[in-house]
Amino acid sequence: MPQSITTISFFRFSSLQSKLWAFGQMQFAHPHLHKIPGLRFYKLMGSGKGHGFNPFPDWGVYTLLAVWESEAEADHFFSEAAVFQRYRTQSSEQWTLYMHPIKAKGLWSGGNPFEPTDHLDTSNPFIAVITRATIRKRHLFKFWGYVPVSERPISESPGLLYTKGIGEVPLVHMATFSLWENEASLHAFAYKSQEHLGAIQKTKQFQWYKEEMFARFQPYRSIGTWGGRNPLEGRLSSANG
Fold this sequence. Notes:
alpha+beta
């Protein structure tokens, strides 16, 4: 029986016209996505400038996170669905990762959409992480005041291949996607960075979040380019799809 998989797609929009189109799709794409066969859960998100959480939007990058009933249905969407073809035409660059969920803790929109798989490849060291939170409105000022301190070390972390702040609603619904060489690199940042540990402590102390989720994935297929290259080119057996 096919197991569900997760995909995350990044789109880069370069011209003013394409950026306006992408912004409009944050409202107008939903009726089309709701009708996609096999699409169990999705979030269409904008992004923030720089790395990690950022209150200032990056109008040139948008993201589609999706959970599929099977890989075949994901493949059909990316090759045939009209809504994705419009994104492909309008964007100057696209990159999609296929991922197996390893574990997920917490809630996203009231549920946990990521079903852990038993199809992990022990020879594949790469790890992708999504951290997501709904910030309590009364704590917005304190939260965003501390973010620059907590996020500072991530861009210099050894083993970090890519990271981007993404979110459904600016300031309130925020997430970070990061891709790592291996689990050791992730642990070095998560458990040795004093700034990151301080953020965890303050989150517990001040109860910043109304809802939060931490999820890990094993990326196993990388299609497209980002920054002119496939970030996992030749590093996965099916890196080119």
